[in-house]
Amino acid sequence: MTENPRTSAEPDPPGDRMPKKSELPGTASASVMASASVAKKGARQRRVTITDVGTAAGVSTSTVSRVLNGTARVDPELARRVQDAVAELGYRPNAAAQGLARGEAGAIGVLVPDLSNPYFPDVLKSVSAVARSNGRRVMVMESDEDATSEHELAEDLMRCCDGVLLCSPRMNRAELVDLSLRGHPVVLVNRIVPGLSLPSVSVDFYGGMTLVCGHLTQLGHRRVAYLSGPEASWANAERIRAFDAAAAFGVDVTVIPCGHTARHGYAAADAVRDSGVTAVVAYNDLVALGAVTALEESGLRVPEDMSVIGCDDISLDDLPSSRRLTTASLARDELGRQAAQTLEALMAANGDTEPRVIPMELRVRHTSAPPAVPAH
Amino acid sequence: MTENPRTSAEPDPPGDRMPKKSELPGTASASVMASASVAKKGARQRRVTITDVGTAAGVSTSTVSRVLNGTARVDPELARRVQDAVAELGYRPNAAAQGLARGEAGAIGVLVPDLSNPYFPDVLKSVSAVARSNGRRVMVMESDEDATSEHELAEDLMRCCDGVLLCSPRMNRAELVDLSLRGHPVVLVNRIVPGLSLPSVSVDFYGGMTLVCGHLTQLGHRRVAYLSGPEASWANAERIRAFDAAAAFGVDVTVIPCGHTARHGYAAADAVRDSGVTAVVAYNDLVALGAVTALEESGLRVPEDMSVIGCDDISLDDLPSSRRLTTASLARDELGRQAAQTLEALMAANGDTEPRVIPMELRVRHTSAPPAVPAH
DNA sequence: CTGTTAGCGCATTCAC
DNA sequence: GTGAATGCGCTAACAG
Lengths: 376, 376
Prior knowledge:
2 copies of one chain form a homodimer.
Chain A: H1 32-38, H2 50-57, H3 61-69, H4 76-89, H5 95-102, E1 107-112, H6 119-133, E2 137-142, H7 147-160, E3 163-167, H8 173-180, E4 186-189, E5 200-203, H9 205-219, E6 223-228, H10 234-246, E7 252-257, H11 262-274, E8 279-282, H12 285-297, E9 307-312, H13 315-318, E10 326-329, H14 332-347, E11 356-358, E12 361-363
Chain A binds a DNA duplex through helix 3 and helix 5.
């Protein structure tokens, strides 16, 4: 034990200090803590309302509302009394009541298929940033890659949020149409459905995979495997579409059903070996790294014996790996930001946003190389 | 292109089918789609309310409410008419109004410091499972390891949720006390604050690290480094406390300030080398894997030259890595389940739950071995 | 500038 | 078993 004995355990010694004025309301009057202490947890006492505040401050509820929301000018003296009362009573506005009266919830919802993939938390961060800058909360829900529950979750979200971001939705077209008919702000992220009137922001996976194929071709690869992701994934379909097109350049792509996790990639390694390819492209970086692991465990060298290419470029920041994965990269923060902005515009009825597309770039790193036995 | 040409692109060919009856309400009447189509997105038309349904069905709003909530017996004929009207109109209850009237939001909130660590999504899954089984939504917020914003986010959550789960909160004791005084259901996950009246569910990190130290000792290690996590982390403090105690067994632990991500671990590798230890314990698996990567890149062999031990055991399921990390493991789903149940009990006023502790187990895998030059 | 009056959409007493 | 009336807590006209 050399350093920093244990100071980090309790940032503040017990009872050391009370919250600073700037942190908490309720420091204006000496009786604050006393009245707060009354709020024992046993007695589910009636929450303090705006009326209580008004009474305590000797003003009407409208005035309280005004100073709290800055809706209109209020006599400084009254404002002070209100704020004191708020602090004194520990008043917090009731979100449901505000929502009802204002006609909006003050929150946006985000539905994602899988939080375990660092990809989504990253997107979420920038979504949250713009949402908060607009004074809105963010409500996250995860469908766990389950297309069945997704529609219901989306409905839930729509019921309690002013707008919803559907990330990589797996639900079928009909369900999407159903949601789009609600007249509720919804934007699609990474899913483009022809004929659907929903704004969308998506990544150019087709372009990204085309770059990957080009890279592989120039390296001399001819036979390539693709570890396919979730069946209902639009992103997956786009990647496959790119491989289709690549056939014109002499690239023969074998699609191997796989999945979206490292575990899936790990399990698919045998099939990759057996397929006789010299390179494999994975649905995403997680799958790719899983595959690399299994491939190496089975005695193959990457990239000498087998090139492995990922997608999403999550490895750099989020994943620990001695393998610097060659991958298709995108600005996840930009994706999140544009999605949130599009939704914001929609909610402001400044809609009619045309489909936005985030480009991909090829990142050549250490898992791609010419094939051991060049084609021709 | 060998298989599965592109069928997965659109699960349903455009216009192929409408939602099945079991999936969606609104199929009862032939005019459903027609009326739904009226809901153009441009005209922010008034949402259909329970009154509209009542009118359409020729009953009072109370009756509508009754059939919708199953609150009381209703004439089957009327019930049918109500349900038809609901379907026809595409009625969805307004969450805010329900919340206001019922006096509860129908949701619980979960605050986590970092969604990018697979640890939290895992916990979230089981929290969601029990919440949903209780008919409650789950609202997730991320503080991004920022102790400053955490208190505010928690307040936000409390305002719109019936109960809140504070996971690994970084805020200081005073802020925690402030929240605990609100008389609002809150349970602490992975943070124990003496004298605080909040129920808690936490992992026995102390015990876990003690096992790790024992393992290392028996292997023959005497000089060990600890890559320390966030300063405000209780879990981090607990780990350090265990190292303190381990000193009695002749283990000399050097604490190296580090962080909570793989990148942090990667960056700290030099310091580990320089410290002259034969083994290093990381704040978590992410950090450990980052360290392994850097260590190996610098020419050291793991575990021959340096043992590396993690914490949380996320590598197995979530992380791709050719390194099977020796680590301290816990049942994350159990942690989430117990936390959610404790909160549920609190909300039902069946509170007074005593602190729950989730045990840790040692998982000896491939990154720990006897030191190259055994002590003595 | 401020107080009074109406709802927001729904659940829930009450009478019938 | 059903409808009418009341109120949840708050905001937004509306008068003053």
